[in-house]
Write a structure and sequence with these properties.
The chain contains five helices and no strands. The chain is mainly alpha-helical.
Length: about 140
């Protein structure tokens, strides 16, 4: 299974976690949509790092500070995109918060994939490719 498919499946799981926590906090418990966004995005981000590191990009060994900082930078960037879209659609255009959240997730996903694939987990991909070539 290729990294894009694994990333997409992991992304689906992250999205379910993010959206479910957001819905629980905002729609059911009445938490402000920006606070709910922050908490739900953090939950999805933690899952994303753990699953993408081990399964998608098959990174082995200890976590390096550089890798973790890059991952946090990418997710900070996608959090900014997602939150800006959410705020524009919900506060600016008066969309329902759950609908605005869904659009925000879609828009931030492509940037997150590219940055993780080609910057955060780049070495892991190179290592996996070279190990595969040795095995053949």
């Amino acid at each position: 299974m290729g990294t894009l498919i694994k990333f997409a499946l992991t992304g689906c799981l992250n999205t379910v976690i993010d959206y479910a926590v957001f819905g629980l906090l905002n729609a059911l418990l009445g938490v402000n949509y920006l606070l709910a966004q922050t908490i739900s995005f953090a939950c999805g981000t933690i899952n994303s790092y753990l699953v993408n590191r081990k399964w998608t990009f098959q990174r082995r060994g200890g976590v390096s500070a550089g890798e973790a900082l890059k991952f946090l930078a990418v997710n900070g960037f996608t959090f900014g995109i997602s939150t800006a879209v959410l705020a524009i659609l919900h506060s600016g255009l008066q969309w329902n918060a759950l609908a605005a959240k869904a659009i925000a997730v879609v828009i931030a996903t492509a940037a997150g994939y590219a940055a993780n694939r080609y910057w955060v987990f780049r070495e892991a991909e190179t290592l996996v490719s070279s190990e595969t070539a040795k095995d053949e």
